[in-house]
Please model this.
Amino acid sequence: MADSENEPALPPGAAPIHESLNRPLLLLGGERTWMIVLGMLCGVFCFVLMHWWSFVLGIALWFAGRAPLVRAAKADPQLSKTARRFLKYKAFYPAAATPFAGLKEKV
Model:
């Protein structure tokens, strides 16, 4: 029997998995690592360079960079990991195995 009315009854031996364990780590709607990198870069422009033009550039970079990161996170919350794995693939994998190839002996 379920503990509350909102939770469905689980079969014997099953354990409930909390929703936060399945959700991706997003920060301000974008992928966490890239939003932190963008925030640090904008912070460098705004607070380290200490010029009026660098403050304007930092704010503009934040708004220009946040929009594509949020849009990419809506499409795939783990896009950077997926893209990194995709870039490791070769463009062409030649056929090497045949049904007539013999077994290779290990030395």
Remarks:
- The CA atoms of residues 81 and 87 lie 10 Å apart.
- The mean pLDDT is 84.
